[in-house]
Specification:
alpha/beta; Rossmann fold; Dehydroquinate synthase-like, alpha domain; 2 domains; six-stranded parallel beta sheet; two-stranded antiparallel sheet; 8 strands; binds fe (ii) ion
Length: 383
Amino acid sequence: MDKFTISPVPELIFGRGTIKELPPIIAKMGFLNIAVITGGKSFVNSIYWQFLSDSFSANGLKVYHFISIGETTPETVDGIVQNLLERNIDVVLAIGGGTVMDTGKAVSAMLCMSGSIIDYLEGVGTKEPTGKRKPLICVPTTSGTGSEATKNAVITKIGNNGFKKSLRHKAYIPDTVIIDPDLIMSCPIPLTIASGMDAVTQLLESYVSIKSNPFTDQLALNGLKLAGSSLSRLVNNPEDMDARVKMAYAAYLSGITLANAGLGVVHGAASVLGSMRSIPHGVVCGTLLGSATEMIIAKLNKHKNPLNDASLIKYSEAGIALTGSNNLIETLNNWVNDYKVSRLSEYGFTEMELVSASKLTGLKNTPFQLDKKDIFSILFSRL
Ligand SMILES: [Fe+2]
């Protein structure tokens, strides 16, 4: 067995009704001032927000509430941090989807560093993150990005000179994660599909990653099995609680596997495309996953050697874990069609933009060295 390292995983409190454990946890830690980041309307209008607000004030906590809508931008993070600097914040609580948790993660870090977050972004800034941060609790309300278990916050600037880059440090893994599937029940179908496809992409890309290890392999296979059996059930019945529970757990596993084994070309392309136009991350992953998998498997078959054969076996195992069938390509392409995952042109992309995007796309830990023409073919097939 080769050498490998596993990063810490957050304390996890998982299960229906666990949101009720949040106020006593915060009170017990002796925190007084709490910064809460949520998404737009749906959670804030729910009975859960009412419950939390009442509990926080009953426990004498002072709450500073901010809403983070859309992608996490440098302006959003810097603006919240500016507002909180004099407030002696004790803990940051992020309740929402991946971008909300990324905002919370970035705010908890930037409350302990000077300047703009841009200065500390990988490939953009010139400063190294210190790793210091405020205590951080994450509560996901979608099942997808796995941000609740990762060490990075993705920060986005869309358009000319746009980017999708990470603020990353191993210390940024949240302290505590509460996954209460009751909070995810009202997640709309299109968002359930997009986040679910993101989770599946993360599990598959980390499973076949050249940096995978026995620990991540076990988790990824388990995650694929849970996600595969749950996604179609949720599309037919979004109130299927058993499927919600399994999908939520699979998404959490995908965060652990991606943080420890890395990702592949689909996420490489998602970073580039997501910086060019406003397109949900889960949609990019979902639309490209079938084509990318088909391309990689074809290349591995064409260039036979023991390493490529081992990767092909992993793709076959992943297909069986997902649906019981080892025809992974067919499964993924059927999902794209059956779930009506959008094409890139529906978000305004043009062929010329895809040429540029393919030149900028990194392979990350893809198990075959695709060239720029291969990457363009993948993107173009989903224009
Ligand atoms: Fe992702």
